[in-house]
Amino acid sequence: MQRLMHSATGLFLLVAVTCAGATASLAASAYEVTVVTPGGNATPVIYRLNVATGEVSYTYGVNFSGTKDPQPVPQGVYRLYSAAGADGKGNYWLYRLETQSGRLWVLGAGVWNEIAPAK
């Protein structure tokens, strides 16, 4: 029985020390990138998201430009999702989700428009 207790204690200490050293690697990324390929000969669009602020910028090449928010966006944990049109004409939609509250925006003409929740 004592041998089992020593083994269990040793295993616990091994797990604790391993997890303590891994804390930094478990940190979330500050930025994420979503690449949209419109189709045809169009240049891919790269969207860069600040995960904490929800700020999104985009580029077709070298310089980033910002998207606009009509109202201030609260701090949170944001993700970008894209959807391409099935017609092959290069249409796509970009959605921004705040993962804690469930708030959702759609990008149109460089401006984020919040999608109202169901009542």
From TrEMBL:
The keyword Signal applies. Residues 1-30 form the signal peptide. Keywords: Signal. This is Uncharacterized protein. The lineage of its organism: Bacteria, Pseudomonadati, Pseudomonadota, Alphaproteobacteria, Hyphomicrobiales.
